[in-house]
C-alpha cells in the first residue's frame, strides 16, 4: 500500500511543527518547507526543503523534489505567511517592494501551490483523500493596525480558497481556509487538520 504524503509549506514552530507531528502519527510521509533547515531530532525523518516563498517560482521546485523522493502529496498545507509592519505614519508611504513580497508569500505562491496540488491530486488513486489547507486568520473581516499588507494577503487568499472550493466541489477535493484567530494552538491545528482528509471535521470547507 502506498504511503500518504503531506507537504507543509511554512514549517513554523507552532502550527507547522504540531501539524507535521499529527500527520506523521497517522502514518504520513512528511515534507516540510521553511526558510531555514532544522537539525532537531523531531525533524530527522522528514524531507526538509529550504526555500523562500516570496519567490513563487520556487514552489514548482518544491513539488518536483517531493514527488521525486516521496511521490505525489495527498495533503498540501499552505502555512506560510509574511507581514511587513507599517512603520510610517501613513499607510500609503510604505515601499511597494515590501507589499509585493508579502503578496507573493500570502497569495501568489499559495495559488501556485494550489495549482500544483491539483496536478498531483489528479495522479492519485480515486480512494486517496485530496486535501489543500490554507492557514487563515481574521484579517479578511477586520482591520488590525499595522497589518495592512498582511490583511490584503489574507483577504486575497481567502477569496482564492472560496473560489477554488466552489469550482472543485464535485471533484472530491477538500479545500479549507479556516481562520486561526488570536489563540494559536499548534496541537489544536494538528488535530483539526488531520481530520480534514478523513472527512471527520464538521466545519464547512470553503
Give the CATH architecture: 3-Layer(aba) Sandwich
Which residues form runs of ≥5 with pLDDT under 50?
A: none
Q: Would you state the CATH class?
A: Alpha Beta
Compute the number of helices: 5
Average of the residue pLDDT scores: 87
Question: What general form does the structure show?
Answer: globular
Quote the CATH topology.
Answer: Rossmann fold
Q: Could you give the distance between the termini?
A: 31 Å
Report the C-alpha radius of gyration, rounded: 17 Å
Molecular structure report:
The protein is α/β, with parallel strands linked by helices. The protein has one domain (5-195): 3-Layer(aba) Sandwich (Rossmann fold), CATH 3.40.50.720. Helix content is 39%, strand content 14%. It contains 5 helices and 6 strands; from the N terminus they run βαββαβαβαβα. Strands 3-2-1-4-5-6 form a 6-stranded parallel beta sheet, sandwiched between helices. α1 crosses α5 (186-195). It is globular and about 60 Å long. The mean pLDDT is 87.
What distinguishing features does this structure have?
oxidoreductase activity; 5 helices; six-stranded parallel beta sheet; SDR_fam; oxidoreductase; 206 residues; NAD(P)-bd_dom_sf; Rossmann fold; alpha/beta
In short:
The chain has one domain: Rossmann fold. The chain has helices spanning 15-25, 58-69, 96-123, 148-167, 186-195, and strands at residues 5-9, 29-34, 47-50, 75-78, 130-134, 173-176.
Amino acid at each position: 500500500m502506498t504511503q500518504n504524503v503531506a507537504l507543509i509549506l511554512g514549517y513554523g514552530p507552532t502550527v507547522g511543527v504540531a501539524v507535521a507531528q499529527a500527520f506523521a502519527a497517522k502514518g504520513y510521509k512528511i515534507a516540510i518547507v521553511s526558510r531555514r533547515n532544522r537539525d532537531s531530532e523531531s525533524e530527522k525523518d522528514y524531507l526538509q526543503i529550504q526555500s523562500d516563498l516570496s519567490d513563487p517560482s520556487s514552489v514548482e521546485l518544491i513539488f518536483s523534489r517531493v514527488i521525486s523522493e516521496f511521490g505525489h502529496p495527498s495533503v498540501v498545507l499552505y502555512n506560510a505567511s509574511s507581514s511587513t509592519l507599517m512603520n510610517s505614519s501613513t499607510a500609503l508611504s510604505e515601499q511597494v517592494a515590501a507589499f509585493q513580497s508579502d503578496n507573493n508569500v500570502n497569495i501568489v505562491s499559495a495559488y501556485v501551490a494550489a495549482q500544483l496540488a491539483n496536478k498531483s491530486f489528479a495522479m492519485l488513486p480515486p480512494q486517496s483523500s485530496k486535501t489543500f489547507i490554507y492557514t487563515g486568520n481574521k484579517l479578511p473581516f477586520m482591520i488590525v493596525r499595522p497589518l495592512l499588507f498582511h490583511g490584503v494577503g489574507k483577504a486575497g487568499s481567502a477569496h482564492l480558497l472560496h473560489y477554488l472550493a466552489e469550482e472543485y466541489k464535485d471533484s472530491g477535493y477538500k479545500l479549507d481556509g479556516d481562520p486561526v484567530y488570536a489563540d494559536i494552538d499548534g496541537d489544536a491545528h494538528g488535530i483539526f487538520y488531520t481530520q480534514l482528509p478523513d472527512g471527520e471535521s464538521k466545519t464547512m470547507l470553503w
